[in-house]
Each structure stands twice: as structure tokens, then as C-alpha cells.
Amino acid sequence: MDKKNYLVSRVTNGATTSSVQVESVQHLAQLITEFDWSHGVFHENHRNEANFISADVIALDVDKGLSLREAVELFKGFK
Length: 79
Description:
This protein is an alpha+beta fold. It has helices spanning 25-34, 68-75, and strands spanning 6-12, 16-22, 37-38, 40-42, 52-55.
């Protein structure tokens, strides 16, 4: 990660969020393994499509065997 701090949301009760500044890859790994979380930041801390503000990271939820190489290929046109 570069020097910018990224924002993600910690999720409680399924839809209530609180923004968290991610300070390192290790910090992000801790958040996503210990808590319910979302890659997005939401208006009024309520997670739903209408309240979506932004996302600083991309999250892939892979359930059926997508490899990292295949994911890189799928996203190669995005910056």
C-alpha cells in the first residue's frame, strides 16, 4: 500500500457501518478476518445501494475457484 490511508467499513447488525482507515496490508488482513466488513463507505453509516459513497479497494468474493491470474485478467482494463 502506498502512503494514502484507505477507507473501508466495519459492519454490525448486517447494515450498520463505521468507516475505518486502513493503515497497512496487515491492518486490512486483520479487519477482514476478524470482523464483518465492506469495501464501501456509506452515507449515514447505513449500508445499501442508495447510500454508497465510494470504495478505495476492490474486494473479490471467490466461491468457485477463480484463480488470482484469472482475476487479474478480468480487471486488467481498470485503474
